[in-house]
Design a protein that fits this description.
This protein has about 950 residues and is of the alpha+beta class. The protein has 19 helices and 32 strands. Among the domains are: about 400 residues; about 170 residues, no CATH class. The structure holds ligand LOASR6YQ. The site of ligand LOASR6YQ has 23 residues, from helix 9.
């Protein structure tokens, strides 16, 4: 038996110091950057731990990062693979979680918190609520400040389509983040879930190795500890690929994993499957027999794996000329049982064998010897016995082929999981529409995946290619644009099927009938929800979705339309149940009529039926939610031309705007904030007229005028035109200070802070082509001056211009620390700001601003595939794997929208932004092909 004879210690040592600058060693350094030469080549940075006053330490030593191209670029990879992937050496130093500090220590107040402030009672109220929820009701807290998810810098591309559950693999190949029950994550590497290679020459096994750097305490009979320096990981969502050199064997394996995440596809994109295509290159002068064994535990490494009653059985399925074979692992829990299928494609020259069951807690020697003997598994017939309580079981499937001398072969394996029902509601998952809901779909799913993945890859290529091949776009951007999309599936996402014969309770109210296309849309495209964040478990948090919605409307517009219909239903409905809010301590009803809810509910409750899981503030008084609905309605219409949608949404827009008018307390055409944190910055107090909410208000009023015009509603058009006139004047008078719009008009010490998100209204207007000409809402010169000030102060004046834009900056160049959120950087806000800059012609500034966030998150902090909501300058972050960063797709929209104007080039990666911002104004983008929408920049038809 061969094997990797380098010990872990020598690998670990060489990770730190690149011999010869890393040139001689195969892919020796951890990287989270492109492999296309766009990287920085900077020395490793090891951020030190930081402690946040409220949520504790969250950042441990991070990965080191280099922007190095692997020797020969991606030449080792024989198929034409895109280069702009997040990539890393599998031999990289794993990230360690920070020291075990008290996460979310509620005894420590944030800086600037007033002892007598009503919310200083928040910790007591929160703790009482948390105790009742978690210890008495035995449910999970929608935000668990007592028990945060530990940071692990290990993640790579998740597996699976949209809304059927996801299994995330780490960049070292581990199966480590599990979301099969929607919205509920299990974090843990399952050791038995591995790929193992066996090489045979002249009838003798010459090499057998688990392709994992681990040296676990179970399955010691296996040959672990593959030297990760011989492998290199790349991720470009929804694909990832790892190139493995097999030391001493002159054989290169490349495993690429493909998930069906395909824009504008509403069938295959819903499938809970992934395919692993193993390309084998034999560099020898003699043939080699290659086996890839895929082993998998029955379960996700959670305590249920030991609950007993799980069993496995072999299967084979032939259909349409395709034959697949493998093992089904039936996971028989009382709620949400599921079946995993581990399968391989049988084709001429490929033999598929299996082992129905083995003990993953034992030494694994039997399995190892079985494979070692002849490169195949025993393939017993019949099902395994069911596990006893306390016992775990696993299975393995092996695909074997012979690769000719200097030749190349492919082995194709798949993983499918079939959990047709979810723990809330009565609806099944979207994929059951195509594969049935009896729980027996796993064989068909795996067969379908193996038969269709080539078509998926063609479609993914066609979608991504125009961006990847655009030499004017920096490589980091290409990685960010596609890799941030992981959250579309791995955001606790659920996509449900609404059958024709059943109507959920919340869709039965009288008002709902006025939404004439509600049922046709929901029945045709299903119901979609994703979490605010993996740590903030609320579905479709609407103030945040406002930012992320660009990804949805550009890539799966029907899901955005469906989501909006669901929000419209909640606007019409109410929930009169009283409850106490944790910040103010006041009691008010859960949901008022004619207001947009904060979220659609908690996955641990009944989402859609019980909305507003968030109980920090009473969001009936938030100023941004209603406006964000109106802004999205018109933006969606502008991009989709969906006239029935606009007609249905129009009365809802009118209702929420009427309700919003109560916030214009002085009748000057401009709403006022209420002196508490009454908007998405829910810990940053705002009082009186404000740049953020006032700006969103004016933009929404402008869109009301436009929609009224399109729909021929003259009366409403006049009404909102009048409000717009007055409101614009009030906004300029109360907030414009000659350089930018003040944070608010309260005259407080921090009123004059520079808010990075002050142009959010303009962002949406620009995205819908409503920022030009006579009817412009914000004077162009003011917008440009505000953006220039933000660039100068919040971006370049913060962390040397390398970390994006801080939310709030004082005019003297010191971050606004009046609240925890004013001194944070919100990645999703930064991408939105960058899009606004691009819309306004500040293309270089926009790219520089966004680049800071990408590099901080994906390179410096090692937070690939878990982009948080926020970080501070000193290595503190908040809320892992968050929705808002999907707003990067608005940068893409801005670039696409500029096609047709004069050409422009974003700066090459890491190029310094020229001193002034002036020279870039008026630059316009080069031809940027459409990656998001289908077809050219839209001009909505009039109705
Ligand atoms: C009670 C504290 C203030 C004490 C005082 O004034 O004296 C609060 C200070 C900081 C708060 C935490 C801030 C972060 C979390 C925010 C989260 O809400 C969600 O976050 C998004 C913003 O990132 C928002 O857009 C979204 O709509 C929200 O769902 C709520 C929990 C926080 C941990 C929050 C808790 C209160 C404070 C500690």
């Amino acid at each position: 038996m061969g094997g990797d004879d380098r010990d872990g210690a020598s690998c670990a040592h060489s990770r730190q110091t690149p011999p010869g600058g890393g040139q001689g060693c195969p892919w020796p350094y951890p990287q989270y950057t492109d492999t296309h030469g766009g990287g920085t080549g900077t020395a490793p940075a090891i951020p030190t731990a930081g402690r946040h006053p409220w949520w504790g330490d969250r950042v441990g030593p991070s990965l080191t990062h280099r922007g190095q191209t692997p020797p020969g670029g991606t030449q080792g990879c024989p198929w034409p693979y895109p280069h702009s992937a997040a990539s890393t050496s599998v031999g990289a130093q794993p990230g360690h979680p920070g020291p075990d500090l008290q996460q979310g220590d509620l005894r420590r107040a944030p800086p600037g918190s007033a002892v007598h402030h009503p919310s200083s009672w928040f910790p007591c109220r929160y703790f009482r609520w948390w105790y009742k929820k978690t210890c008495i009701e035995k449910k999970s807290a929608f935000i668990d400040l007592m028990c945060a998810v530990p940071l692990q810098q290990i993640y790579g591309c998740p597996l699976g389509g949209i809304g059927g559950g996801t299994i995330t693999r780490g960049w070292r190949g581990e199966f480590c983040r599990w979301q099969l029950n929607p919205g509920k994550y299990h974090y843990g590497t399952v050791i038995a879930d591995q790929f193992t290679v066996c090489l045979r020459r002249k009838g003798q096994t010459v090499y057998q190795q688990v392709l994992s750097v681990e040296k676990p305490s179970t399955l010691q009979g296996w040959n672990w500890g593959y030297c990760g320096h011989y492998a290199f990981y790349h991720a470009l969502y929804p694909r990832a690929w790892t190139v493995y050199e097999l030391p001493g064997q002159n054989v290169v394996l490349t495993c690429r994993q493909v998930s069906p995440v395909i824009p504008h596809d509403y069938k295959d994109s819903s499938l809970p499957v992934a395919v692993f295509i193993w390309e084998v290159e034999n560099g020898n002068e003699e043939p080699v027999e290659v086996s890839i064994m895929f082993s998998m535990q029955n379960g996700m490494g959670a305590k249920e794996d030991k609950s007993g009653g799980h069993w496995n059985e072999p299967f084979a399925l032939q259909e349409g000329g395709e034959r697949v074979a493998g093992v089904l692992l039936h996971h028989c829990t009382p709620t949400n049982p599921f079946t995993l299928a581990v399968a391989a494609r049988e084709k001429a020259g490929t033999v598929v064998t299996h082992l129905t069951a083995f003990d993953p807690a034992g030494s694994g020697r039997d399995v190892w010897q079985d494979l070692l003997q002849d490169g195949k598994l025993e393939s017993p017939t019949g099902e395994s016995r069911a596990t006893a309580k306390g016992e775990v079981t696993a299975a393995a499937v092996c695909a074997t082929c012979t690769v000719p001398a200097r030749g190349h072969q492919t082995l194709e394996l798949a993983l499918a999981w079939d959990m047709p029902r979810v723990h809330f509601g009565a609806l099944g998952r979207r994929y059951t529409r195509f594969f049935g809901s009896d729980g027996d779909a796993a064989p068909a799913l795996s067969r379908y995946a193996l038969a269709h993945y080539e078509e998926w890859e063609r479609k993914i290529d066609a979608w991504q290619k125009p961006v990847l091949e655009n030499s004017q776009l920096p490589s980091w951007y290409k990685s960010a644009l596609f890799n941030e999309l992981y959250f579309m599936t791995d955001g606790g996402t659920v996509w449900l099927e609404l059958p024709h014969d059943c109507l959920p309770q919340e869709l039965q109210g009288p008002g709902v009938a006025s939404l004439s296309h509600l049922l046709p849309v929901l029945r045709e495209y299903g119901r979609f929800a994703y979490l605010e964040g993996q740590e903030y478990r609320m579905y479709n948090t609407y103030d945040v979705h406002f930012y992320a919605s660009f990804a949805l409307v550009m890539l799966w517009p029907k899901l955005q339309i469906s989501l909006q219909y669901d929000i419209a239903v909640t606007v019409i409905n109410e929930d009169v149940e009283p409850r106490q809010y944790l910040m103010s301590g006041q009691t008010a009803q859960v949901k008022l009529k004619n207001v947009v809810p904060h979220d659609i509910g908690d996955p641990d409750d009944e989402p859609w039926q019980h909305v507003n899981a968030y109980l920090m503030h009473d969001t009936a008084n938030w100023k941004d939610l209603n406006l964000k609905f109106v802004l999205q309605v018109y933006r969606d219409y502008y991009l989709t031309h969906d006239a029935p949608y606009l007609r249905d949404m129009w009365p809802v827009c009118q209702a929420v705007m009427e309700s919003e008018l109560r916030f214009d307390t002085d009748n000057d055409g401009l709403i006022e904030n209420g002196g508490f944190a009454d908007q998405t910055y829910d810990a940053w107090v705002v009082n009186g007229a404000s740049a953020y909410c006032g700006g969103l208000w004016l933009a929404a009023v402008r869109m009301m005028c436009k929609m009224a015009e399109v729909l021929g509603d003259e009366e409403t058009q006049q009404k909102y035109s009048g409000i717009l006139q007055k409101g614009k004047e009030a906004f300029e008078r109360m907030l414009w200070n000659g350089k930018y719009y003040n944070y608010d008009s309260s005259g407080s010490d921090t009123s004059s802070s520079i808010m990075s998100d002050q142009c959010a209204g303009q962002w949406f207007l620009g995205a819908c082509g409503l920022d030009q000409g006579e009817l412009e809402v914000f004077p162009k010169s003011h917008v440009i001056s505000a953006l220039q000030t933000i660039f100068e102060k919040n971006v370049m004046g913060f962390a040397g211009g390398t970390m994006g834009a801080v939310n709030g900056m004082r005019p003297d160049g010191v971050p606004d620390t009046s609240s925890v959120q004013s001194s944070e950087v919100w990645i999703g806000v930064v991408y939105a700001l960058a899009a606004t800059m691009i819309q306004e012609g500040m293309v270089q500034e926009g790219f520089h601003t966004a680049e800071g966030c990408y590099r901080t998150v994906w390179e410096q902090l090692g937070m690939a595939f878990q982009t948080p909501e926020a970080y501070c300058e000193k290595k503190v972050y908040r809320s892992l794997a968050y929705m808002r960063p999907l707003s990067i797709w608005s940068m893409q929209l801005a670039l696409e929208s500029r096609v047709g104007r004069a050409p422009c080039a974003p700066p090459p990666s890491s190029s310094p932004v020229p001193g002034g911002t002036k020279q870039s104004i008026g630059d316009s983008p080069g031809p940027v092909a459409s990656a998001g929408r289908q077809g050219p920049c839209p001009v909505p038809p009039s109705l």
